[in-house]
Amino acid sequence: MGIVWSEGGLNFTYLNDAEKTRQARNTHGWTTVGDLGHLDDEGYLYLSDRRVDLILSGGVNVYPQEAENVLLTHPAVTDAAVFGIPHDELGQIVHAVVQLDPSVTHGDDMEKTLLDHCTENLARFKCPRNIDFIDRIPRLPTGKLLRRELRESYHGHTGSG
Q1: Which of 76, 74, 57 lies closest to 124, judged by CA?
Q2: Where in the chain is CATH 2.30.38.10?
Q3: First to last CA, the chain
Q4: What is the CATH number of domain 54-153?
Q5: What pTM, to 2 d.p., does this model score?
Q6: Which of 13, 28, 55, 56 could form a disulfide with 62 if both were Cys (CB 3.0 to 4.6 A apart)?
């Protein structure tokens, strides 16, 4: 897994952010928009996540898409978003926000059920520590997850457990 760089695309700048624009270019003249991906044995590129969404927890990289994919396999889950929230000791911890099927009620039992579902299907360090339930996951009309909005709502939160 690594940052995806490309050459020959359009020249762009980030609005009012010369440093971010500088970091989006390398010495070869290639550019990146922060996508993370990998090549398979046949040379096909698979996009996995965005660098800005990477969670650094206790020195370990956690890719939110992995936990989101697992949560979405549970029949009670309609939509899910995973992101890092500040943590006093680990830097960040993995946190999830879930939109349940309207026929399902949430509570401590449902949170435990979904957390167990994650630990059965993922390495423990990739699993959310907690899950909050909301009526609708914020997305653009195109379907793009507005993870930044969710992260910002937890910006002042710090945990130690």
Answers
A1: 57
A2: 2-52
A3: 29
A4: 3.30.300.30
A5: 0.74
A6: 55
